[in-house]
Design goal:
- The chain has helices at residues 17-27, 39-51, 73-81, 107-124, 136-145, 164-172, 196-202, 232-242, 247-262; strands spanning 2-6, 31-35, 55-59, 86-95, 128-133, 155-158, 176-179, 208-210.
- It is of the alpha/beta class and 264 residues long.
- An eight-stranded parallel beta sheet has the order 1-2-3-4-5-6-7-8.
- Helix 6 links the parallel strand 6 and strand 7 (176-179).
- The two termini are 13 Å apart.
- It binds zinc ion (2 copies).
């Protein structure tokens, strides 16, 4: 079982990071990919990958941070992208959700930063790890307009949300899809109109990737507590049951998917 998207590079793991990593490996997680959201968290993801055998990094600037960048951010990112065990560019994308702590960043800026990173990924032949919150239409338009920049396979949509039409188009482009612990929650998230369970049921198992987005989105019954990579197993069991797939087969297939996509 692989946790293909989490943030052990975030502050909430500062005090017990090693214990969290060891408990994940003890629980049956075999590989973990930490995602950067700006330059410093990307740097730390790369350092952790150096330190631990089965840890990898994807590096990138999240749309939230698109308005707080230094002039040479893309050069800094390119340097990081060439470090060992950097397996993708992420998390990158667009986000139109209005957060209490950080309102919507200027969409023009978000798009500019997203595009520069798509170009970088193309240059370095790295897959994308895409973050979308209520901006599926715009992301799709950008990807379709830059189809020649996409690898085969092009990457994954992490923490997928949106409608069935977006999902179908994302799959048509060759993307893999990941779901987090929020798939175990009842009801729809604000601004969404399609149940994540219906979306996950539709995704062919050879396109599914397992992930947590830890420290966020812990699955039921851990909801409300800090999410950890080992809880990827709880979410995976939930999705396997949803899809009526035997857990061992689900684990084998999704592990194979992540290894293939990110060349782990
Ligand atoms: Zn995200
Ligand atoms: Zn994330």
């Amino acid at each position: 079982m692989i946790d293909a998207h989490c943030h052990l590079n975030f502050h909430s793991f500062e005090k017990d990071r090693n214990a969290v990593i060891q408990s994940a490996f003890k629980s049956g997680v075999t590989k973990i990919i930490n995602a950067g959201t700006k330059i410093d968290s990307s740097k730390l993801a790369v350092e952790l990958a150096k330190e631990y055998k089965n840890l990898y990094a994807v590096i990138g600037v999240h749309p939230h941070h698109a308005d707080k960048l230094e002039d040479d951010w893309i050069e800094q990112l390119e340097k990081l992208a060439k470090m060992p065990k950097v397996v993708g560019i992420g998390e990158i994308g667009m986000d139109y959700f209005s957060y209490k702590s950080n309102d919507i960043v200027d969409p023009k800026l978000q798009k500019e930063v997203f595009l520069k990173q798509i170009e970088l990924a193309h240059k370095l032949k790295l897959p994308l790890q895409i973050h979308n919150r209520q901006a599926g239409k715009e992301i799709l338009e950008i990807l379709l307009n830059h189809k020649s920049y996409l690898l085969n396979p092009p990457g994954m949509f992490h923490c997928f949300a949106g409608d069935m039409d977006l999902l179908k188009k994302v799959l048509d482009l060759g993307f893999y899809v990941g779901f987090d612990g929020n798939i175990t929650y009842n009801g729809l998230a604000p601004g969404e109109d399609t149940d994540l369970k219906d979306l996950a049921k539709y995704v062919p198992i050879d396109r599914l990737i397992t992930e947590t987005d830890a420290p966020f989105l812990a699955p039921v019954p851990k909801r409300g507590s800090r999410n950890m990579p080992k809880y990827v197993i709880i979410t995976a069991k939930f999705i396997a049951e949803l899809k009526d797939v035997n857990f061992e087969d689900f684990e084998a297939k999704t592990t194979e998917n992540a290894i293939k996509l990110f060349s782990l």
